[in-house]
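During the reporting period the student researcher (J.K.) took over the structure-prediction task from the postdoctoral fellow and processed the backlog of single-chain submissions. One of the processed entries is reproduced below for the supervisory committee.
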Amino acid sequence: MERIDISVLMAVYKKDNPTFLRESLESIFSQTVEAAEVVLLEDGPLTDALYDVIKSFTMRYASLKVVPYPENRGLGKTLNDGLQLCKYDIIARMDADDICKPNRFEVEYNWLKTHKDYDLVGSWVDEFSDDKMVVKTKRKVPEQNEEIKRYAQYRCPVNHPTVMYRKAAVLAAGGYLTEYFPEDYFLWLRMLKNGSKFYNIQDSLLWFRYSEDTVGKRGGWKYACDEVRILEKMLKMGFIPFHVFCQSVVIRFTTRVMPLPIRKRLYKLIRKT
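J.K. obtained the following structure tokens:
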């Protein structure tokens, strides 16, 4: 099997599901190409079941590098440290509960190698809940860089667990700033503002695990206030005009503080557009 010079960066914490972690790691080590390095960050103490899963993979794969942290610090800070630990300039992100399609790394790596002026490539995702063969919806994102920049004024323009990016470009933009949430969205905005070019492959390269908790985590007063803070930064950066700022504040804040049942229905409608 061909070995490619990339680092895979992922984090796990105590509330992650051991079965989901196993499926996620299996998908990484069952790719059509072999990643030279897989950096797994343990964000604080884990359950025995999670430790057992990780041990079973470290015994089988020498490329798996496990980095334990004594306390939970949150995804953004943990990923920032992980960026520094990654040996290779091209990094593939992965979450502990999603599943890569077998050709994901090969497709994204070949795309970046042949488009050296681009700093990030992502893809669509197939959302599922229990069985990945039963796709609930396909989360689509725009293809070309200019489309992505326009889309980013209103919504996150890439699917985070699908991205493969150049480490240098991420660090040049300041990495994941933990005082702003969602950290990934704000990182993409800063990278685009820095002149980085993005591309989204118009096909699904990952199964994204959707649950009832997914929408619940993306709402509430704190989440709404965090999004308004990002919009304020976007306005100051010159990324959005004032009328878009006003429009987005009203729409996003209202959406995030809606009762959960209404948000779930709205989420389903948005994902179909």
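The committee noted the following: The first strand starts at residue 3 and ends at 12.
J.K. will present the remaining backlog at the next meeting.
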